[in-house]
Amino acid sequence: MLHPTNPSFLRSVLFVDAVTCAAMGALMTFGSGLFGRLTQIPPELLFYAGLSLFPIAAFITLVATRPVIPAAGVWLIVAGNLLWAAGSVLLLATGWIAPNLLGSSFITAQAIVVAVLTKLEHGALPIAVAPLRAGR
Q1: Which residues, at least 6 apart from 54, have a Cβ–Cβ distance to it below 8 Å?
Q2: H or E element in which residue 30 lies
Q3: Taking the CB of residue 131, how many other CB atoms lie within 10 A of it?
Q4: Rounded to 5 degrees, what are φ and ψ at 120?
Q5: pTM for this prediction
Q6: Which of these, 54, 53, 73, 75, lies nearest to 65 by C-alpha position?
Q7: Residue 69's closest CA among 7, 136, 4?
Q8: pLDDT in tens, the chain (136 residues)
């Protein structure tokens, strides 16, 4: 089992982030109509937000598969995740949309998952780049 102090931990978390990103993209894009009706989240919002997740998942995968994980790439992922989580909270807090309980729960749950992944990625970054600094 990987431990957060293991340099491979960051790579594993990035892969989890990429897979969940692609899975959410598929759910939101291809299921936007049905999921929109079930959650009262506008289907157009689901569709385009989901569509945006595919290139993000590809970028995260690209960063995770480099022989040496680039710190700048991880920082970009962390920043993007923070913006996604904050945007999700803002979407609910401002009343821009009026989801039902299932929709609000979905938005809240995915924002929490993104925030946890962000925390893990941010926390593992110094450990993953420490061997690089030592080698310089």
Answers
A1: 22, 25, 29
A2: helix 8-30
A3: 10
A4: -65, -45
A5: 0.88
A6: 73
A7: 7
A8: 565 666 689 999 999 999 999 999 999 999 999 999 999 999 999 999 999 999 999 999 999 999 989 999 999 999 999 999 999 999 999 999 999 999 999 999 999 999 999 999 999 887 766 554 444 4
Structure-block tokens of residue 68: 């040496």
Closest CA to 52 of 21, 7, 75: 21
Neighbour count for residue 35 (Cβ, 10 Å): 20
Tell me, rounded to whole angstroms, the distance of Cα 47 from its chain centroid: 16
pLDDT computed for residue 125 by the predictor = 83
Contact 76, 17 (CB under 8 A): no
CA 46-48-49 angle, 5° bins = 65
Helices (H) and strands (E) in the chain, counts: 5, 0
